[in-house]
């Protein structure tokens, strides 16, 4: 595949590396040039406008335009905050971890630029508690940059202050939901807030707050350094610009992070050319593109381009671009039961439909997988899903229904075979 | 047993770091857990007092987060990720091998082996496990044997 071979990475510029890129190495490769440029030659508004013009969309999953999000922050006096979402917990997602582990300064530069753009002096990096080593590396990189006068008080000899704090979570997927993340930072149970007010108006400590994903912010240094025009030359403007890290996992020969322009390759090309194809040359049964949080794409959709709009047109979501590949020997019912077990475990319990519904979905899927399903179960799964989706405060409840509804609709025959045969027709994994 | 003087001092220092005191509650509970090994009621209360929040505010965090424990845990806890990407790459067999290979340690309470539906963000290096707070990845073949050997001699 020529695209993957010719593309020069912007975010993960050291493939295969295991040690973090040091401050001096990062600077030797053009690091913090964008930060200096912003501080010396650009106003905060110009930074916001440049990011808007780049077309950068949030890489955490929702794909919301980043520049617009920054533009929502009111210009009124008083404290403003940046909260960096590093609570990477979506099954199949491991891109922010690699960015933090290998390119911590790229992430920090992006955070500093966001702080400058919205006039915030304090940023929190909310990192999942299990990422002990990545969090240690972030703290080491912050200390390096502060010692060099790049971050901290009076950044690069200016009046601008940027204080970046690493805040370690303690094991809860819901903290990746932006308002739950704020609750967690405030020392409360991380249960999503009802909106409005939105965080741009009333976020952390009831002050205007931008919440961005790690990969989103890692895109910003290059946008400021090289300009939005250059950024628009990557991907498919205007709605699918820039590089994207695709996390490839499941039944492929070479799982891993692959950075490519949005829309440059199809699902099939990513699996075959980057991932080395399916293990044992098996056929693909389906691919989850947004971890377990969006409908599965069946094998007839493998020629869909990997960008926000194409995946949406095919009936799913790009989300965090976490592609989990299921081969022909994979039992769909067992897969759905595993995914639902995740949501049952991670539901925060605030909204009854999600708290109770995920538990029942999991129970019903498990009984079907174990050969104890009854004829009405499929209708029951679909009606129960309908009682959860759209009736909860945050997206977790909606996400929790897609492993069920999409698989029941697209692989109904497999469910029926389990129920009628009284057992799972597949070999154990 | 009260928290050590060092932990109390570290918690008081934490409070100074943040715009609002209560932000220090979760990091403080984690420090307290490192000190005591787990979070008994009196430790939760002591931590809450240091931060200046009701005991219930601290208790509701302890019972929510999976990394906080209000009961004693074995010295070595092995948690195998068995969510879909890892399950597709042999997580179940890893759980079985660990349980078989560490029968004695499990029986004496030195080691606990559990599977989880949580994803640890290591799907490209599956199968994997968290051993206390460190990741052990690509646990097939020799790496799996080595881990079992390490934990059996521990």
The gist of it:
The complex is a heterodimer of chains A (429) and B (154). Chain A is 44% helix and 13% strand.
Strand element count of chain A: 11
Number of strands of chain B: 4
Mean pLDDT of chain A: 96
Structural classification of chain A: alpha/beta
**Main sheet makeup of chain B:** 4 strands, mixed
CATH topology of the largest domain in chain A: the name is Rossmann fold
Rounded to the nearest angstrom, the radius of gyration of chain A is: 22 Å
Number of domains of chain B: 2
The CATH architecture category of the largest domain in chain A equals 3-Layer(aba) Sandwich
- Briefly, what CATH class of the largest domain in chain A? Alpha Beta
State the CATH topology of the largest domain in chain B.
Answer: Glutaredoxin
Query: Element order, helices and strands of chain A?
Result: HHHHHEHHEHEHEHHEEEEHEEHEHHHHH
Low-confidence stretches of chain B: none
Rg estimate of chain B, integer Å = 18 Å
What sequence of helices (H) and strands (E) makes up the elements of chain B?
HHHHEHHHEEEH
